[in-house]
Structure prediction request, 166 residues.
Amino acid sequence: MKIAVSIEKMIHFYHGSLHDINHFLKVFSYAKTIGEQENLASTTQEILEVAAVVHDIACPLCREKYGNTNGKVQEKEGAPLARQFLRDLDYNESFIDRVCYLVAHHHTYTEVDGLDYQILLEADFLVNADESKLPINSINNMMKRVFKTETGIRLLRSIYPVADAQ
Prediction:
């Protein structure tokens, strides 16, 4: 039940920022769904779910320090924050290392080295596309360029029915 504690602690961490809270909960939901549908091993699934919970942990700091939440500054600032957050929850170091790697790369679409990484990218994009009101051509481009899992592609096409229909 560490994941439930992680979620509750992350909600507290965001201290009333409904956007941040709703964002990570949606990313978590998509990541959990895609991971389960893609039959991830249990440890990989847990890493994915925890990474989805903490992937944007740097956003409050980035807003204060940089005035924005650009993906690259999130990646730069996120891993140390995630590491401390997870140590406080007694996750083991190899687990923490992988989650922090994912947090430090969740806006990097090249050299994807695992299904947990791939699914986190897809889940985050599914939410960001809606929140950013991306045009359908951008969604199609991401589907063709980044999406790899059957489940992620199905979800993207269900959420954006005109995706890939052009």
DSSP finds nine helices and no strands in the chain. The first helix runs from residue 2 to 13.
